[in-house]
Design goal:
This protein is of the alpha+beta class and 439 residues long. Helix 9 packs across helix 10 and helix 12 crosses helix 13. It has 17 helices and 14 strands. Strand 4, helix 10 and strand 5 form a beta-alpha-beta unit. The chain has a five-stranded mixed sheet, with helices on both faces. It has a four-stranded antiparallel sheet with strand order 6-9-11-7. A three-stranded antiparallel sheet has the order 10-8-12. The structure holds uracil (URA). Uracil binds next to helix 9.
Length: 439
């Protein structure tokens, strides 16, 4: 077999077979296929797509390119959760302790942020002392004893995906449905849970800009999960504006903690209830979505989710006093207001621009190895549908460098539009074994 023939076959629009895909993935993994040929094949896939069979084969080969997790130490059904990435997406921080408080074990590997989309591991590291690198023994111990542990991805989870993602990032081939589906699902399969809940973001703060594309991605990922014998549900959710109010690491931890204490933004809680209830139903801890939602809401009312979060932070070396008093989390030197230039109704708060403003103040990365400033970010005060008067505060930029903060103020300003607002729904659709359901 030869890689040039494989590239030419995909270039000419033909489907690749199992041997060809396995040859490609193992060649990427062991370094025998050079980056220029890998990039050429990625571009051919980007342009000509992959059918479901090819996408599943690519996913499988990438999942098997490294270590797989052994979760057999957990009794019952193991449920994983994954978001396709968005701005202000702090769902894991709140939903993990909520479902754990309902008796579902959360043993989760999470990623770091890249580009406008943030990552759970960076957010957790804004808590002083919090360790996201755990030994297998520690990870197992916390999940068994307290039902919750979250760690960073070990180097050897789906290493072929890591190499491919790095090349996609620099060759304009990230936004390909089969490549995104295979990338996300290879890591989920390597984590070896029995069931998977996917949160596929749709809107201008997400990879998928339209509901139509997000539903297609959701269908592809659900098909891959089902094919591998995993119960899989994908919620397609709104990312037309930042989720909740806060975007930026410590700012998001604060918002998640406020939510666990019962004082968070209602739209954010609504999404946590959606994702958490799919998790509880797949994990057979609830018989129906409505029963699951009630159980989850109770974990906020009775403080059990908040207590679970504190236990989780303490286990992983984090400073619990910063959770009890979120004023102790890292704080930026400058908090700069973004002022409304006119009267009107907010009709857009472009998520991608808010994400870019976060990068400008150091809350996000452009390159994989960029350092994060955990204190910085953006907190929006006005969202789609809000009436504003000229001079009102639309948002605050939190920055440690005044000049960068001022530039970010302009970027945030450019995210706002005024005019007729379209009412925003949080859950747009969901996909399960029976197909697509529109809400
Ligand atoms: N997240 C991933 O893990 N992979 C992608 O390709 C896109 C988002």
């Amino acid at each position: 077999m030869n890689i040039v023939e494989i590239i030419a076959k995909k270039r000419d629009g033909f489907a690749l077979n199992a041997e060809e895909i396995a040859f490609f993935v193992s060649g990427v993994n062991n370094g025998s296929i050079p980056d220029y040929q890998t990039s050429a094949l990625l571009m051919a896939i980007y342009l000509n797509g992959m059918n479901d069979e090819e996408t599943a084969l690519l996913t499988d080969a990438m999942a098997k390119s490294g270590d797989t997790m052994d979760l057999s130490f957990i009794d019952g059904i193991k449920v994983d959760k994954h978001s396709s990435g968005g701005v202000g997406d702090k769902v894991t921080l709140a939903v993990a302790p909520m479902v754990a408080a309902c008796g579902l074990s959360v043993a989760k590997m999470s990623g770091r942020g890249l580009g406008f989309s943030g990552g759970t591991i960076d957010k957790l590291e804004s808590i002083s002392g919090f360790r996201t690198t755990l030994s297998e023994q520690e990870f197992t111990q916390y999940v068994k004893r307290d039902g919750i542990a979250i760690m960073g991805q070990t180097k050897n989870v789906a290493p072929a995906d890591k190499k491919l993602y790095a090349l996609r990032d620099v060759t304009g081939t990230v936004a390909s449905l089969p490549l995104i589906a295979a990338s996300i699902m290879s890591k989920k399969l390597a984590c070896n849970s029995d069931a998977i809940v996917l949160d596929v973001k749709s809107g201008d703060g997400a990879f998928m800009k339209t509901t139509e594309d997000a539903v297609k991605l959701a269908e592809k990922m659900v098909a891959i999960g089902l094919r591998h014998g995993k119960k899989t549900v994908a919620a397609v959710t709104n990312m037309n504006q930042p989720l909740g109010f806060a975007a930026g690491n410590a700012l998001e931890v604060k918002e998640a903690v406020d939510t666990l204490k019962g004082n968070g933004p209602s739209v954010f809680l609504e999404l946590c209830l959606v994702i958490g209830s799919f998790m509880l139903v797949l994990g057979e801890k609830a018989e129906s979505i409505s029963q699951a939602k009630q159980a989850l809401a109770k974990t906020i009312e009775n403080g059990s989710a908040y207590a679970k979060f504190k236990q989780f932070v303490a286990n992983q070396g984090g400073d619990v006093s910063q959770i009890e008093n979120t004023e102790l989390l890292p704080k930026a030197k400058y908090v700069l207001p973004v002022i409304a230039p006119q009267n009107g109704t907010v009709s857009a708060v472009c998520g991608e621009k808010i994400g870019n403003a976060c990068i400008e103040v150091g809350a996000g990365r452009i390159e994989k190895n960029d350092l994060i400033d955990h204190a910085t970010g953006v907190v929006v005060s006005k969202k789609i549908g809000d009436e504003v008067k000229s001079g009102d505060i639309l948002a605050y930029v939190h920055a440690n460098d005044e000049a960068k903060g001022k530039k970010a103020v302009e970027t945030v300003m450019s995210a706002y539009e005024f005019g007729d607002a379209v009412k925003q729904k949080m859950l747009l659709a969901y996909v399960d074994k029976d197909g697509v359901h529109y809400e």
